[in-house]
Design a protein that fits this description.
Length: about 600
Amino acid sequence: MRHHARSDSRAFSRRLVLATLAIAWLVGSAPAQLARPLDPILYTVRVIPESQTAEVRATIPTGKRASIDLMMPVWSPGFYRVEDYASRVRDLTARTPDGKSLVVEQPRKNRWLVRTAGAATVVVTYQVACAQRSVTTNWVSPQLVVLNGAPTFVTLVEQVRRPHEVRLELPATLPRAMTALDAVADGTANHYRADDYDTLVDSPIVAGDLDVQQFDVAGARHYLVNAGDRGQFNGTQAAGDLQKIVSQARALFGSLPYKRYVFLNVFRQGGGGLEHKNSTLLTASAARATTPAGYRSSLSFVAHEYFHAFNVKRLRPVELGPFDYENEPHTKSLWISEGFTSYYAALLVARAGLDSTSDFLGAMSSPIRQLQQAPGRLVQTLEQSSWDVWSNSMSGINTDPKTSVSYYVKGEVVGFLLDAHIRRATGGSKSLDDVMRLAYKRYAGERGFTPEQFRKTAEDVARVSLAEWFRRAVSSTEELDYDEALEWYGLRFASRDSQDASQNWKLEPRPDATDAQLAHVRALLTAAPPAGSAGSRSAARRPTEPDPTAWHPNAAAALGTPPMRNCPVLPPRTSPRSADPASRCPAHV
Ligand SMILES: [Zn+2]
């Protein structure tokens, strides 16, 4: 259009420009942002295994301002704890592109002010100590590199979307890197681009001798990247099983919200996993994955982090975005973001045919037992637990069971009970799946939901008021009511006060369960197609595949003790900041 010469065309162009400027003003963006992309910040990250550091060189546009403000985040989205990343930054200096030294001040622990001397760009260099193994920190060794965005990249203090590019320089001992960041197609290795700082922070990078498996679901490419001490870990089998889990998530939501997703599975000491929009960073134990129970537990762990790609990374509480990296957000809804994610991890693994019905019942018994044995359930409500996460725990992990309730544990139980409540209220025609789909449709993306909006969404599905149900389960410390779920599914607790602790709160099928109740269990553990799709519940599984929900009403005695989804056995922490989520499982953050 620029090349059009006719006067009416020029007038139209002027009107378009004016309209564009007006829109830019209305949305509070800099007009230049719409006129052309902002100049990117360019980082070169040189990894130095000998000193366990990364040397960062950032070329930063100044907009010709006399000074610029830089910051490093104080927290990482998904990990609800203030962490002092800036304390691991050393020797931060600034120069003009032709090498003239510039004045740098540090008005706050995580902020730097650079006097630009009128330069259009400044070059800031600094060292980052990389000797911590948690999922929000950095690790550099001759064999393995794990870089997270928040503790690595300083950026401009500004409220705009600006591209950020990273060139990673690796020594020969670290032949390959993987990340969810888009590669820049300029022929150089390990050159990545993010459309904005959020994407950069949300895309950890792992480098080393990597075993990379790949699979596709619905046209989206998935990578399982196994790094570190892999031992005898069977990456091929794991990729096949993850494909089944991803397929179940796709059946649940009807589509996948990305074209490329990366499981960064790092075998090393410690524990923990952290969700990202198009990837997850996992800490794994190869030894643990060699036992059937340990392997299933690890699948559940991965399924939890993966489900976050839908629940919290896209469908999120309104408070969790856009992120203020210098101030922590408070929300009452982490029981939805975390507890329901744990519930759906258990469901996806069972629906994928990787857990039997008894495995699933064992998986649900575990949080019920934890909750019912924790006095804190009578002290703190679910929404208080979520709200207070910044002050009383390691991101909701290692909470004191005497004085607090875990939103992971109680949130998962509430998910199970709410699902049963909706199924019963609708005669089995609707479920929590429908709530998640509808909430996703209404609130995923830029919007986010309030607690009231989420409850209203559930009510729109259930077609009954849930005010009293939510008040009791979420806003009070009253005991949860299990009877409805037990009745709907034909279940019972083996015991509530046995000397044998493993029997307490252990869900088991009732010997006299009716065909209708058995059908309810099958419906729960069979993927429901999204509304409007051509499939049906029974068609969701191919007839040749074993039916994981197959059971017999008299099978209770034969089921034995279901494998507990215990937390991985963790070695002593090497860092007090290791993310060892352990209230239910160390992995789930
Ligand atoms: Zn989580």
